[in-house]
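This part of the workshop introduces the protein records we will be handling. Getting from the letters to the tokens is the skill we practise here. The record below serves as our worked example for the rest of this section.

…
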Amino acid sequence: MHRGKGMKFVGDSRVPAERKPNIPKDYSEYPGKTEAFWPNFLLKEWMVGSVFLIGFLCLTVAHPSPLERIADPTDTSYVPLPDWYFLFLYQLLKYSYASGPYTVIGAIVMPGLAFGALLLAPFLDRGPERRPMKRPVAVGMMLLTLAAMIFLTWESVVTHDWEAAAEQGKIRAEVEIDKNAEGYKIAQTNTCTTCHGENLSGGAAAPSLVGTGLSAEEVAKIAKEGKGNMPPGVFKGTDEELKKLAEFIAGLKAE
């Protein structure tokens, strides 16, 4: 029997016969399509970020934040308005079956279903196609959600009373109110503070009583006959109490 007769050698194609040095790929054949991360690419990123940052700072200087008066927890007439990206939820809570006794539906159930659908989207549409026409489930859910958000946001903007919102948050001149004064106690008894606020600085439904420039006689006339949103006959006290109330309000001067 000759040497090596009947023997077979098995090789593995995954193991190279010759070891080559670990040389990175040459990108010279792709001119203009690649560049060094440092400093070329990183410098461009910094430049773009700087432009956006400077632009944002310029906007903050040109359009300062719309600050309102100091929050008053005793002012129950103040109606807060969320930021624009939550206006669709704010509008949703205005509808009959999403507010009042059904607030849980509008605040938890509906947003929960939308969020759950977003989580299940990869499992509901598992096709390899990337064209929108080939992915009707995912595209349909996205378009339906987007249309609902745009519609609700638009409805919230056009139906909101922006004048009343600006008035209720308006920064007004304040005065030190003597809450032990008899005139203030009469105002509390006749529910003046309910609409005009604990500091009589006004609210969404009533103007400020500080620095009105009205005389005591004019204040007394308005208290009995009403004016604007204030109906007549709100004051229920005696003539002496009306005089003290009128003098107290007329004497409130802005600092």
